[in-house]
Each structure stands twice: as C-alpha cells, then as structure tokens.
Amino acid sequence: MTEFDARDPDLLRWLASLTAERELVMRMAMRHVFDRARGDPAWKRRIDELTAEIKPSERKLAELLKEVEKAVDMINDVDAAARVDESILPE
Fold first, then answer.
1. What are the pLDDT digits (tens) for 52-80?
2. What is the DSSP secondary structure assignment for residue 87, as one 8-state letter?
3. Contact 35, 75 (CB under 8 A)
4. Element (H, E) at 62
C-alpha cells in the first residue's frame, strides 16, 4: 500500500471540497484501506461529525456503505496501478 498521510493539507482540502455525503464515503473508504486513517482520532471525529450532519436513515446508510465498498475497490485499484514495476513498461 502506498504511503498515506491523514493530515496532508492537499488531501484535506480535496475532502473539504466534496459534498458531505461524498466526503463521508471517501473518509470511510480511506479509513478501511489505510492504517493511518484508521488510527487517527481526528479522522474518526470528522466521520462522526459528517454522520451527525447527514443523519442518514437506515436505507441511506446502506446506500452509502455500498458507495464505500466501490470507493475501497477504486483506492485499491489505483494503489495497485501505482505500484507497477516500471521496468516492465516500454521506454
């Protein structure tokens, strides 16, 4: 897994530019994938704040969790692509 910094200013600006629902989905997905997000109290606090702000119904929460699964897959795919051994790529 590539390096992840839960306090990277560019990442935090990008997350802040998203809608509350999309930010929640991406934060939950990143928390699932990256140990540093999982262990960061500020990261969890923001997830809790977004959940309280959105107040999702059970149905909406189920929809959001499906989006989290898709985002986890996307993050893993991007990470795998980033780790491709450059020696096998044509010059």
1. 999 999 999 999 999 999 999 998 888 77
2. G
3. no
4. helix 58-82
